[in-house]
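If your schedule permits, I should be very grateful for your opinion on a structural question. Please examine both parts with care and let me know of anything in them that strikes you as inconsistent. The record follows directly beneath this note:
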Amino acid sequence: MGVRKTVQDPESKLYRSISEVSDMLAVKPHVLRYWETQFSMLRPRKNRAGNRMYRPEEVRLLLRIKELLYDRRYTIAGARRTLLDERKQDEPQVELGFSEADRRLVMIEVKEGLRALLQRLKREPAGAASR
């Protein structure tokens, strides 16, 4: 029996890997990389290892691109024009800057590290900590 993947809430994580996003959208990772070359507004961050990390707003944009291309049968150029027109019509949005997103990601990593350290300290005997 195959496990069926469901589309998760794009807001549930700060960053998602290309494999997570490709699973969510049911497209291959190379399709996402191609769309990145065709849609200038799609620019995922890359981590230190060079892997793409998609923010929730980029996941929403990818969902919209997939809808235009697959469901509405737009061409790449038509989808690009539609997205640009939609951006012009929308009121300016307050967007989370990279520096703020980086601070949030660092805070999450620090919290996870502290939790791991706390768990490790709880497992060690009381006399081992004083060495």
Observations:
- The chain is about 55% helix and 5% strand.
- The beta strands are 16-17, 45-46, 52-54.
